[in-house]
Specification:
By secondary structure, the chain is an alpha+beta fold. The chain has one domain. Helix content is 32%, strand content 25%. It is built from one helix and three strands. It has a three-stranded antiparallel β-sheet with strand order 1-2-3, with helices on one face. A hairpin with a 3-residue loop joins strand 1 and strand 2. The longest helix is centred in the last third of the chain and has 19 residues, at 41-59. The termini are far apart.
């Protein structure tokens, strides 16, 4: 993910509770923290799905 200032960060997909567009994309984490990112809601969802698929392929 990319913060609004352009700094890259890695977010644990399992920690994401909600993804909101307000119009900025806000990730609400299970620990109560909120992170505003440059990526769209659709992109965040795509990356979370990709992460889940990668976990399943490792288990096979």
């Amino acid at each position: 993910m990319t913060r609004l200032g352009g700094k890259e960060l890695v977010v644990n997909a399992e920690m994401i509770r909600f993804v909101e567009a307000t119009p900025d994309t806000i990730l609400s984490l299970t620990n109560g923290e909120k992170i505003i990112v440059q990526e769209s809601v659709d992109e965040v969802i795509r990356r979370c799905i990709e992460y889940g698929r990668s976990l399943r392929s490792l288990a096979d």
